[in-house]
């Protein structure tokens, strides 16, 4: 197979606010704006940003749980928007989701064994013996004893429930798992265990992850590449090490500066993250970060910066730190992402 496993091109999602009765224009929440990225087989792409920047909406768009206002999601080169019900079911086998809150995402009335074999039974009938063998295998894969297959989610710890959610995601042998704040609800020590489990599974099974988190220390631990989102847009996308060692966009720099840093050797950066996140209903003109940006110049107030390829496979949307010039101006965001991963 050639080409990326997942290709997202100029994805946009606007949620209308109200019915707009007798109004000419209905206000919209600009949740996701012109987002493009690729994910290679076996890769972990992290999406990071403050609350409300559109991370979960991207996840829902990837799974086609909501329809985009614009743009495309291609899985193995196939646009999922064009898939009919049966083909969509098959495509969804390849992409599974792990959610933040195992309490609400697991059916409280089913046993652990039933929960994890249910996705397979949606596609094929299993004998009692096969169901038991599959449940035991999946439980072992996520480090749980097969003995707990008769327990209900309420009889398990938070970490065990999240392992169960991962086992259920693994049941259909997906190529890609979308993990939306998958460790945020867990204690730090349990978080580390789950992150290590995901990385082990990736090594063993070659699974790719889109890993959504607001927590930079988690992202730094697990990511191969990181996309930083601000108010619905990707402002920087870079290899993980490069991003943390040398953030280019002032917003990335501010996010890293604001995060607790376990490594005392690391130099703390100086861009403070001040002010409130603006409303996605009435976002600021030009670069939407400009009202909070200490480096903003006049151009930032009037012109939306396009993503520009800079060194080390990185793209950045900033008039000051990565000014667009020459032929780069002619490329769309999707072209820039493609250039960056080549
Ligand atoms: N169904 C909806 N209708 C209207 N607005 C929505 C809807 N879903 C999300 N939004 C808005 O879209 C924006 C992006 O939300 P989203 O949940 O994608 O952000 P997020 O980065 O995942 O936030 P968090 O980390 O808090 O979950 C927010 O302003 C949110 O209020």
TrEMBL record:
The residue ranges of the ABC transporter domain are 6-256
Which Pfam families does the protein's record reference? ABC_tran, oligo_HPY
Subcellular location, principal? membrane
Carries keyword Repressor?
no
How would you describe this protein's topology in the membrane? Peripheral membrane protein
**Entry's Gene Ontology molecular function annotations:** ATP binding; ATP hydrolysis activity
Protein's recorded name: Peptide ABC transporter ATP-binding protein y4tS
Cellular compartments annotated:
Cell inner membrane
Q: Is-annotated flag, keyword Transport?
A: yes
CDD domains reported for this sequence: ABC_NikE_OppD_transporters
